[in-house]
Specification:
Helices cover 57% and strands 6% of the residues. By secondary structure, the chain is mostly helical. The protein has a single domain, classed as Aspartate Aminotransferase, domain 1 (Alpha-Beta Complex). Strands 1-3-2 form a 3-stranded antiparallel beta sheet, covered by helices on one side. The protein is extended, with a radius of gyration of 19 Å. The N and C termini lie far apart (58 Å). The mean pLDDT is 93.
Length: 130
Amino acid sequence: MMSIHQYSMLCAGIISQEAAYEALVAGKEDILEMKEQYRLRRNLIVDAFNRSGLDCHLPKGSFYAFPSIRNTGLNSKEFALRLLEKEKVVCVPGTAFGASGDGFLRCCFATSLEQLKKATEKIDRFVQSL
């Protein structure tokens, strides 16, 4: 059982490896298009946070933004819970990543531009209500 488990769980199956190879070899245009879409989404959410008064640096290697919410007077957990209750927008409190994450939120932008626009409008409305 250990041998079966070891070879089925410790690496990607050959079919997945072949698919990944094909994507890398033949999927250049698709990769570039997806990269551009993530760039657009990243810029939209970061710009929206900064316009709302939530200082946010431009992430360079992920699809998460980490805006500061310190100027709102709320800690990360309070902000995230109140945003969820009032506007139905989910963000992860920065404290989920350690004590030094307090005063920040982790916000994923791996969704459609339309959904991001709605979410950032709701976040702005929430911040302005504080």
